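anyone seen this seq b4? input:
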Amino acid sequence: MQKETLKILIIDDPEVINKTIRPSLVEQLGFADQNIVGTNSGKKALEILTAAPFDLVLCEWDVPEISGLELLKIIRKHDTLSDLPFMMVTSVGDQKCILQAAQEKVSQYIVKPFTLESFSLKINQAILSKEQRENKRYQVTKVNELTVLNNGKVYTAGKMINFSKGGVSAKLVVSRELAIYDKVELKISVVDSVSGQKFVNTIQGELIRIERTTDATNPKTAYYSFMFVGLDRVQKTFLETIILLLER
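predicted toks r here
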């Protein structure tokens, strides 16, 4: 979609909209001013969204009448608005709030103040199609761990290499007990680089690939790739949270 045709609704304080967000969108990122609508009311925003089509919502958490989080909940349950890209652009950076937004399937979350580069990146990620987001793979550069288990028994463990909503790859110690298409439990541990908080959950997976490494210093390792299977709502929410953390 061309930036010039993208319709954006901003829900925030009018001064913030007119002095910060709108100028960034129009003057620096190339969006069309006539396609940007602003309001400081969550209730008014809902009226606007149900009256005309929009391509993206940029919303502050703390807005009058209907909060940003409540507006997100309403939109995700709405018959025609449920897939609308919804991005939190907020001064609220508490991890509990980020997790709450992830649980309600926020498209992106950015904390003020932010750089123009990060703002642009988050917008681009928010408007990706659902299919693109499902398949997008994120490189994992922090110290994030994967442990492979079966009925509580540890098969192998190591560091994650990349991650997506559909699966995970990791550099693990070679285990002869694991074979292609084996069903296992994947204990995923990710550390938020900003807060230092650790997020941990166990997800069912299926081994789909093993590739030997060329690491001469540690020849007993290999790259293992797993596909997630049988996800429940809690596990899906966990994956959404991890994606948000990796995109920060």
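Residues 14-28 form the longest helix (15 residues). The helical segments are 14-28, 42-51, 68-77, 95-103, 116-126, 130-135, 233-246. kinda curious what u guys think
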